[in-house]
Write the structure tokens for this entry.
Amino acid sequence: MSIRNLAEFGTRHVARGIGRLATEVIESGSGSYVTMASGRKFLDFTCGIGVANLGHCHPAVTKAAQTQAGKMVHAQVNIAFQRPYLELIEQLIPLMPDKSLDTFFFWNSGSEAVEAAVKLARHATKKQNVIVMQGSYHGRTFGTMAMTKSKTIYGENYGPLMPGVFAVPFPDCAHCSIAAHAGGKFSYEKCCMDPVTELELLLKRETAPSDTAAIFIEPVLGEGGYVPVPEGYLQRVREICDKNNILLVADEVQSGFGRTGKMFAIEHWGVRPDILVMAKGIANGFPLSGIVSRKELMDTQKPGSMGGTYAGNAVSCAAGIAVAKAFQEESILENVNARGKEMMDALKELKQKHGDMVHDVRGLGLMQAIEFKAGKGYGSKVQAKCMEKDMLILTTSIYDTLRFIPPLNISQEDMAKGLGIIKEAVEEVAQGAKPEETGTKGLAPE
């Protein structure tokens, strides 16, 4: 089938509900690059939305999967133990953000892992309700659609959804109404902590602590705009949970496995979660997700209440083992922090130069974003310019935001190349937005 026919075939026969950046057909990937069937080679700052954290086709991960496929592909978790599942746990226990997190359940996708956390929280506490954050993304299954608050499209016209879900504001200082009333100044370093007050009010007004099983939070808001929580917020939430016998669940599907410069983002704030949710980068592209909690909590569930046909697939677990070893052997976190600083410096420079376009830059490690001022569609224009220059980046959130998710082991040279493309794209969009070039003062071209 020709390249053109492949794209036309996909447009006709792949579900329309799947949105996509381009109609290109990806043929292969290697390291920080993907190659299309057309022959075009793109620098990939998307990583399959934060999945191929060690780059495409990491040699050690590929070899581990190939070796395991020759031994056992599917070893059903409800029948017997399988070696890769157990060895993966052995590799992960030392990497957990708290020693209490020692008992695991593996599933296939991030959404399934979030639902596993809901099941555990409800069963262990004998309470129904869960609290999530405005702007959060937890998945697109029926349970997680109710919990996702980043965009209405994920749950639009699919109701009724899972009941018992309540939402509170996330501490997003760039969009804080209090900061707006104070003249538009905001600071992640000196958050007003009004979201803590809103959480306390929610527990008094809508869902009593005696009815509330858990609070779910992404330490770095993902789909909501790559917003890290400000210092002090998670500590306050932990206090509220302890006081009211509520479980704190950290959804680290996107922020986990080195993405923020630590193995898990919650380590930046030194807070202990009761349940940690993981997926995406855990196996570098092989379908695998999981939850981890303390043994006494996990042991409240009866045998047979958890499981799944493909849960903890043997090949995926073998890939996960190789990923964990790569972090130890290849100085991945050191590279994340070095390259992350280079990216943040470059984004701050763009904000300083183009303050009329850029509202905010933020992030941790190699999970960073640039938010443009509303109303002109700058983000999509910059994204299109980057694609013209053979680079893939993604938008996110209801605000005009671009997110950057390069491989964690990206070279200094490829980072410089990517930042150069981003800078060129912003400059070109800025030139096109100048009113003197349109002949109409104060208006950008449509």
Summary: Residues 43 and 391 are 5 Å apart (CA to CA). The chain has 14 helices and 17 strands.
